[in-house]
Amino acid sequence: MTAPKFDLHATITAQIIEAMEAGCPPWRKPWTGGEAGACLPLRGNGEPYRGINVLVLWSIAAAKGYTSAHWLTFNQAKTMGAHIRRGEKAATVVKFGTVEKEDENGEDKVIPFAKAYSVFNAEQIEGLPADFYRKPEPAQDLGTEADPALDVFFAATGAAIDTTSQPRAFYDITADRIHMPPIGTFKDAAGYYGTLAHELTHWTGATSRLDRFTRFGDRKAYAFEELIAEIGNCMICATLGLTPDFAQSGAYIEGWLGAMKEDNRAIFKAASEAQKAMDFVLAITENSVAMAAE
């Protein structure tokens, strides 16, 4: 009897759906009181994971209580003179790449591929350097006062941000402006900047930037865009050491679950778009700071 073919997208999507249906989307878990704080998962060489792998490893770290940000393959650990503890289970992540193949006309064609491979958290491994076991810095508690450095970061994006007493935070697509309530109305400043990061992710979708709204314009686009903004919010805040704002309605979560069950690649698409949004924001802020220093 032939074994069923391994479905990479279905396997990872099912894992994330399970976490969401348990009441805790995996990209939220690192900031709900866990010791890990806000950090992006890191490869053995210190390079951050990207896209869907961020969500997968956040989910597993939250479920297992891992506080180390580092994830290594069996061979990477062995090369460093370390070893996986007996009985430890690996996490499945995805490698994306391209290969060149010759078509029937004799022309080279670039073909994308996705390949699964296994990694272990540093806390499953014995014998690694001490830095691999170091706990990330805890999420910042900024109180109710504005943080000058964070204000500089968000201002460097060039986004138009309005503040009024209206108790709503939103991105106005027509006016291309972000609206925020006063920072004093938030329970803490971290919540304010997390909310701002969410709206800033929406802002990246404008035609003059990543042109996301025209590319995703079907009936489910609103829920899909909210999912992108939620993940983008977390990614941006993770780079800033902030706790994101998770005040999203249950209706959105139900919509996300429905989309993921109908299309097991939906979460991959959302994670990819969120990664593009974060890359866009970081590129703009880095350029602005560099120009100001000249």
Automatic annotation (TrEMBL):
Domain of life: Bacteria
Residue ranges constituting the N-terminal domain according to the UniProt record: 7-120
Pfam short name (any one): MPTase-PolyVal
GO molecular function: single-stranded DNA binding
Domain Polyvalent protein metallopeptidase: from-to ranges: 149-272
Xref: InterPro entries: Antirestriction_ArdC, ArdC_N, MPTase-PolyVal
Name assigned to this protein: DUF1738 domain-containing protein
